[in-house]
Specification:
With about 475 residues, this protein is an all-alpha fold. Helix content is about 70%, strand content about 0%. Strand 1 and strand 2 (about 330) form a beta hairpin. The model is unreliable at about 1-40 (pLDDT under 50).
């Protein structure tokens, strides 16, 4: 059996469609491309300040690949060996493969829907615009918009917190008895974010995200190399790949691990990234995803497998933490310093990428599309609003160093629907494949399975919060 998809990934040829469907979406039509380009000037005039200034459509497919890689291949991938501790070898690798295949598939589907609507003269620049047009106004306003904001702003807070933790690790290497607290390092990292947040548009991040791509390869290589070095030496722990805990702990551990893996593959801003592409957009997103998933394959699997091989069920929630044993470095200190520096710099890029939906909302609210992008009328409210946004995220990260537990709930309720469920729903509602086709039922199965997994993972995350609550303290020095 085979699936018929109305698009040829990177090819001039394309799969067959029924005649009535060809009228809806003809990927081979150059007239559609010309119509899209011709409609662009008029659409520019109708854009609000958020879409006009933050989501500029000037990028190439290479830039798109940089944005995608930064938003997906981020330091949370260093948690993959920890996820394996709840799953074991077979289930861990299986979940990793399924996560890669399903997200690559669903991101391509949502790209096809965006391309179709662009060809029809309705180019969607935001996730909530898609939901508004396909599902109805209330879905965009009260469901997709809010959960996307929570997921993205939660990612900014989490990046700021993790950046502070990495800075603290570097500090303790040189000052083991140092008195500086975690919240101080979070504030330092927040200062870096405050500067980067002032970059005017998503497109203006293209060079930063190119560097980010190199950095994620660098710290993944460090994590892999360090794990192999320790695993082959007598310094590491005894290798034990058994799953710890009683039946209940193991069951909830499986769903926690699934949530970690799903969040690691999560994106939540595919429409906003595709919005940065200069028209015509046909085929460009697929090329960008190919860049991204080449990096995903190299980094995710190497870090997960090498980390779990070296440390087994002793793998920490961040594999770089395993390079220190009770303050004693298991690898040269310069190596730990270098690994953390790569991570810190890339975290700043990740944080500013996930700030873009917030920046777009702020620009739409306070900006004036009839004034120049760099006029005083727009620059002053932009700087104030974005600065307050970063200060708020930094404050939350400093106050709640256990925010990772809270973010797991947000991820389960957010990344699962945005990245696994809604793309296949949007595709089925837009292209209406036959209910007798394999394509239709594959999409329905993905939607049902990952909706259920999202709910269960959220329950598991709430349970973990209740177990850890006794250790929660504001501004704790973790």
């Amino acid at each position: 059996m085979y699936m018929t998809i109305p698009y040829s990934f990177g090819s001039a040829s394309h799969f067959s469609f029924k005649k009535r469907e060809m009228g809806v979406f003809n990927t081979g039509s150059t007239a559609a491309d010309e119509g899209e380009e011709a409609a662009a000037p008029q659409q520019q005039k109708d854009l609000d300040a958020g879409a006009l200034f933050v989501l500029k459509s000037k990028g190439s497919w290479v830039h798109c690949g940089y944005h995608l890689t930064t938003s997906i291949v981020a330091p949370p991938l260093l948690s993959l060996p920890y996820a394996f501790t709840f799953l074991g070898w077979a289930a861990g690798i299986l979940c990793l493969v399924v996560g890669a295949l399903v997200t690559f598939y669903s991101y391509n589907l949502i790209s096809l829907v965006l391309e179709h609507n662009a060809n029809m003269g309705r180019r969607h620049l935001r996730f909530r615009d898609m939901a508004h047009d396909i599902l109805g106004p209330r879905w965009g306003q009260y469901y997709v918009g809010p959960i996307q904001f929570l997921v993205c702003y939660g990612a900014v807070v989490a990046s700021t917190l993790l950046g502070g933790q990495c800075l603290k690790t570097i500090y303790l290497l040189s000052h083991p008895d140092g008195s500086m607290k975690l919240f101080e390092f979070v504030i330092i990292f927040g200062g870096l974010m405050l500067i980067l947040a002032q970059l005017p548009s998503f497109h203006s991040l293209r060079h930063i995200n190119m560097v980010s791509l190199v950095l994620c390869l660098a710290y993944s290589a460090c994590a892999t190399g360090g794990s192999i070095y320790i695993g082959n030496s007598s310094k590491g722990p005894k290798k034990d790949y058994s799953v710890n805990g009683d039946a209940e702990d193991r069951l909830f551990g499986v769903f926690n691990a699934i949530a970690i893996i799903a969040t690691t593959f999560g994106n939540g801003i595919i429409p906003e990234i595709q919005a940065t592409l200069a028209p015509p957009v046909k085929g460009k997103m697929f090329k960008g995803l190919c860049i991204c998933y080449t990096v995903v394959t190299v980094t995710f699997f190497s870090v997960a497998i090498s980390g779990y091989w070296a440390f087994g069920n002793q793998s920490d929630s961040l594999i770089l933490s395993n390079f220190l044993d009770n303050g004693k470095a298991l690898v040269p200190k310069w190596f730990i310093l270098m690994s953390n520096m790569f991570t810190i710099i890339q975290l700043s890029a990740v944080g500013v990428v996930y700030l873009q939906p917030t920046n777009e909302v702020l620009e739409k609210t306070f900006g004036d599309p009839t004034s120049g992008e760099f006029s005083a009328r727009n620059v002053i409210p932009r700087v104030i609003a974005r600065s307050l946004s970063v200060v708020s995220a930094t404050t939350i990260a400093a106050m709640l160093p256990f925010f990772g537990d809270i973010n797991s709930v947000i991820g389960a309720f957010g990344f699962m629907p945005l990245d696994f469920v809604l793309p296949v729903v949007f595709f089925n509602l837009t292209f209406k494949p036959s209910k007798r086709s394999l394509l239709f039922w594959v999409n329905v199965t993905i939607a049902v399975v990952f909706s259920a997994l999202g709910v269960i993972a959220a329950v598991a995350a709430v349970r973990q919060i209740s177990l850890d609550a006794k250790n929660y303290r504001l501004f704790a020095n973790l």
